[in-house]
Design a protein that fits this description.
The complex is a heterodimer of chains A (339) and B (283). Chain A contains six helices and 15 strands. By secondary structure, chain A is α+β, with helices and mostly antiparallel strands. Chain B has a domain of 46 residues: OB fold (Dihydrolipoamide Acetyltransferase, E2P) (Beta Barrel), CATH 2.40.50.100. Chain B has seven helices and 17 strands. Chain B is flat and about 65 Å long. The chains are: A alpha+beta (339), B alpha+beta (283). Chain B: Belongs to the RRP4 family.
């Protein structure tokens, strides 16, 4: 991982402070405290869903903190001729702004982007999390859901922030409603006298209304009905995972490291949990970053701890996202009605 | 319009503000011409030299001047020189010939010194130095030829905007809570455990072991707590854009201790605001 350079004296100071009793961090947080997280959804008007997240910004001044911009965009893909997959697919891309990592060369920045993209893509595009409303026409058309994230500034713990921003953007995503359309040759008429009909309209069909054998296959295209809203929410919005990075500094571990703390903890354990409502919690991804080793027994206790932290984080994020929904829909509508 | 630019007067301007007519004056840095008017493009102070109008931005990188005390971080080791990040537009340069070497101040630099430059400073090391001169391209050259300058240990770095550090009589502050501060004019502040004057300067002879050591002394929990508290106070003052002075820091520290709160509570917005309100009232 890209860590800002740090001197040996600073590193030992941070390490010994963390291992002191009681442990003390540079800004006085306890080991399990997160910095303040600022989150806003719906920041990009042209995206289907978007979010901006800042972790650790000081409230009075604009600067500081890890800043992530996330946006999702839906595109139609052809399953037969294009690269589409039946039922839709999700592609995740992370871009790092060079100003977030001024110490990195462009090659190192590319590598970092690639690493982050891999972590995000492999976790979010997992079949277990796949939303079921990304298909348009079976075996013909499907949505491609691109999740694009930009790291605008990194003040440590970019991965947790990336996952949180991705979750917020996906939560915010609206899938446009579609209606399949079929082209049907009129019985007895020439092939070029095609009539365009909506599938759901049985009276208009020249054939028997009960003859539905070819219906599915014939659905060749779709239309976008005009509704007052932008579509229905993406399925499975409660399944999107949250990530906690446990920075291991035996015998303790701590959360939400700043960049200098990241430089002082040799091993990081990345745990990604999903908390679907009325289903058991599932561990979606797990990764160890850095050099060092862990015993299985330690791993087990860390997993249990990690789940607890992730649940707290999940609940806080969920509350904030519901808040944002209210702010953007109910309140905005009320304001509009008042005008 | 152009009445109040006597030499030495300071007038604040904001982006888009018309300054004067472009007929009578020339535009300098931080301005542009539109509609035959010189207009400020940044927020800052207006400066005039004869017929040249320029605006010096408030929020900018550090503009070095000779004699300034800066705190920097080594970014690169090059032949006979180190590159130092000092929050300026370009990396500063620290020549091997401008550091104190073990075995006496007046010693000649040998080839062996060039080969073991990393034993003095290596990448990531923090140091305190003075701006010695400028190169032709505007990069600054540093020196550490004083016993007060050199590698930094026993503490942590806080970064704030360089505009908030005023030129003081001394930039080495020592707070009664057992914390030393080095206020780099480039906005880097080193907060560390107090080291006694005699220990710091050594007994006459220059102790190279200690000067280039990477090992921290033993630091007790109370000192660590004080270091964290002072760092947080600096961060809050910076967030409220209040220039640092030693009396201000002391007032704020006393206030923070009186509150008997946790160190982390300082970073919460209402606590910070309360602190600012209290110390502003005392002045």
């Amino acid at each position: 991982m890209a860590t800002a350079s740090i001197s040996k004296a600073e590193r030992t100071y941070i390490q010994s402070s963390l291992q002191a009793n009681p442990p003390l961090r540079a800004d006085g947080r306890s080991l399990l405290d997160y910095r303040t997280v600022f989150l806003e959804t719906g920041v990009a008007p042209l995206a289907n869903g978007s979010a901006r997240l800042n972790m650790g910004k000081s409230p009075q001044e604009g600067g500081g903190g890890t800043e992530i911009l996330a946006a999702t965009k839906l595109e139609v893909e052809d399953v037969e001729t294009g690269g589409g997959v039946d039922g839709g697919r999700l592609v995740c891309t992370v871009t790092c702004s060079p100003s977030a990592y001024p110490q990195l060369s462009s090659n190192a920045l590319d590598e970092l982007q690639y690493d982050l993209t891999t972590v995000l893509h492999q976790t979010l595009a997992h079949p277990a999390l796949h939303p079921c409303n990304l298909g348009i026409l079976p075996r013909k058309k499907a949505w491609l859901l691109s999740v694009d994230l930009v790291v605008l500034a990194d003040a440590g713990n970019a991965l947790d922030a990336l996952f949180m921003a991705a979750r917020a953007a996906l939560w915010d995503t609206k899938v446009p409603r579609t209606r399949p359309i079929q082209y049907q040759g009129r019985r007895g008429g020439g092939a070029n006298e095609d009539a365009m009909e909506a599938e759901g309209d049985p009276a208009a069909g020249a054939r028997s209304a009960f003859d539905t054998r070819d219906m599915k296959r014939d659905a060749a295209d779709f239309e976008l009905p005009d509704y007052w809203d932008e579509g229905e929410v993406l399925d499975g919005r409660d399944r999107w995972p949250v990530c906690v990075t446990l920075n291991l500094l035996p015998p303790t571990h701590f959360l939400d490291a700043t960049s200098s703390e990241e430089g002082s903890a040799p091993v990081k354990l990345l745990l990604t949990f999903s908390f679907p409502s009325n289903q058991p919690t599932s561990l979606q991804a797990m990764r160890m970053i850095g050099s060092g080793e862990l015993l299985l027994a330690q791993m087990k206790s860390l997993l249990a701890d990690g789940e607890k932290y992730a649940r707290d984080l999940f609940q806080a994020l969920e509350a904030k996202l519901r808040d944002e929904d209210v702010r953007r829909n109910v309140k905005a509508r009320g304001k509009f009605a008042m005008r | 319009m152009d009445e109040d630019w006597e030499e030495g007067s300071h007038r604040l301007t904001s982006p888009g503000e018309p300054l004067t007519s472009s007929q009578a004056f020339m535009r300098g840095h931080g301005t542009y011409i539109d509609n035959e008017e010189v207009i400020s493009s940044v927020a800052g102070t207006v400066e005039r030299v004869n017929k040249l109008i320029s605006v010096r931005a408030v929020r900018s990188r550090y503009n070095p001047e000779v004699g300034d005390l800066v705190v920097g971080r080594i970014t690169e080791v090059q032949p006979r020189r180190w590159k130092v990040d000092a929050n300026s537009r370009q990396d500063a340069v620290l020549m091997l010939s401008s550091v104190n070497l073990p075995g006496g101040v007046q010693r000649r630099k040998l080839e062996s010194d060039e080969l073991q430059m990393r034993t003095f400073f290596e990448e990531g090391d923090l140091l305190v130095a003075e701006v010695q001169a400028f190169f032709a391209d505007g990069a600054m050259s540093l020196h550490t030829r004083s016993l007060r300058y050199g590698k930094l240990r026993n503490g942590q770095l806080v970064t704030i905007s360089p505009a908030l550090i005023r030129r003081l009589k001394s930039h080495f502050l020592s707070l009664p809570c057992g914390v030393d501060l080095i206020l780099g004019l480039n906005g880097y502040i080193w907060v560390s455990k107090h080291v006694k004057q005699t220990e710091q300067e050594g007994e006459e002879a220059f102790d190279a072991e200690a000067v280039y050591s990477n090992k921290n002394d033993d630091i007790d929990d109370a000192t660590r707590l004080a270091v964290s508290r002072v760092s947080n106070i600096i961060r809050i003052l910076a967030a409220h854009f209040i220039p640092l002075t030693d009396t201000l820091l002391l007032d704020a520290y006393e206030w923070a201790v009186e509150q008997e709160g946790d160190v982390k509570e300082l970073l919460q917005a209402d606590t910070g605001d309360a602190m600012i309100a209290t110390i502003a009232a005392r002045d």
